[in-house]
Amino acid sequence: MIRFPNTLAFRLTFWYTLIVIILITVAFSASYFLLKKTLDQSMEQNLIEDIGEFQLLYQKKGLDGVKREINRDMKSDGEEELFFQLFDKDGMRIYSSDLSSWGFLPDNQELIKQVFSTEELIFQSMRIPGEEYEVKAVYGLIAPDTLIYFGESTEETENIITLLSNVFIVILIIVIPLASVLGWVMAGRAVKGIKEVSRIASEIEKGKLEQRVLVPAQGDEITQLVDTFNAMLDRIWVLISEMKEMTDSIAHDLRSPLARIRVISESVLSNENTPPTFRSAASDTIEECDRLSQMINSILDVAEAEAGALQVTKQKVNISQLVQDACELFEEVAEQKGIKLTCRLQKDCYIYGNIQELQRMLANLLDNAIKYTLANGQVSVALTCNRQNIEI
Length: 392
Fold this sequence. Notes:
The protein is α+β, with helices and mostly antiparallel strands. Helices cover 63% and strands 15% of the residues.
């Protein structure tokens, strides 16, 4: 099953091409019927003029002159193109051209009587058995007692109509791919602004909040979309900035009360008269204060980094040695909780970075692992590296 792209550009191209095809088809249909009607009217007019010429000829040269003119017409145009018959007032045929190419002509005695009684022309369209083209015929009086019945093939008219149909097919074959290409180009220009908005939204999703949509004027709808989107980004940026400022302020404000809590806990812990239960609580309080201090410092460091004020020095660091030092540092803490700490390290793995931040990262990982592992559990640390990656 063919699956077409479900994109706005494809749908616009499809509808544009379809509308062009419909318009061309409507224009062709109108031209076809108008041309056919015009050709039919022109053929009838020619038949009327021929009747008039035969009337004048009959008045000047009589019936024999009419017969001679018919014979000349048959020789010049061919027996396949024309036929003639002459009838008297009683409906008897008094002359006929060679009808061998016309097969069977219908008996039209009623029409003959009607023409003699009304003296009006009667046109007839018919298809002779075995003939490819339709025949246009006329009944008319050339004298009060003589009626002429003649017709001619519509081959020439049909050929013009066929030619028009072939031209329509050729135009359609050319126009469909051309309309598709033009529609695709126009659709691409129409959705360019939307694609740019989508691209910027993708960049923002990755954290690049400073990005803005910049597209040339493409109509009120796209311009309004871009302006609204940029205004939304500005508003989000303001809100995030205010939240960061508030977070920084809270972090700074927490330092002082946290420091006082730690000092009070240290004084309780250092007092020899403090009961063991209070000493244990003071020790836990000091430990949690240190954790909070690390968190606050991390928040402030992130804020400084985003503001561009944090100066981070990078150097070549032996990450294998750094992980080994971290394992040794937390080994005693793990033993106190009854946790087995194992380290499987690949030697001489180097990374380009800030040694203090790397130490903090490793400390956080190990601290959380030991904190959330049950007693008698196990924490395993593994380090592998290659030319492209380091995995901890």
